[in-house]
Amino acid sequence: MIEANARNGSINVWLVHPNDPQHKAPAEEALLRRLPAGVKASDLITFARFWRARDKLTWEPLPERDSSQWTLKLNVNEPVEGLTFEFQRELMSTEGLAGVRVEAHRLILPAMERQEVVLQVRNAR
Prior knowledge:
alpha+beta, Immunoglobulin-like, 4-stranded antiparallel sheet, 7 strands
């Protein structure tokens, strides 16, 4: 199930009751060592903080005269890491914030504190 969810970008929530730690702890450790590439484990507090920060984020795409360029304005209201934007058009590059990863149709933002960000984005032609 973890691999299937990884393929479609879904999350897994895994609850392990501590009633048999001699058997459950080693099984949990083994599963964590075998997570698919790109799948990260986290605790629920970290997960909740991410979603709260994501929910409080405001963003606005602004067109430019050149249709291959546009601006993305972000207001980050709580510290957050790993925000990802997905687009239909393929992206080429971005300027305005160090550490942004550009993948074919994604912008993956670095860890950010409370701040306003203005990104200049260029689409692939």
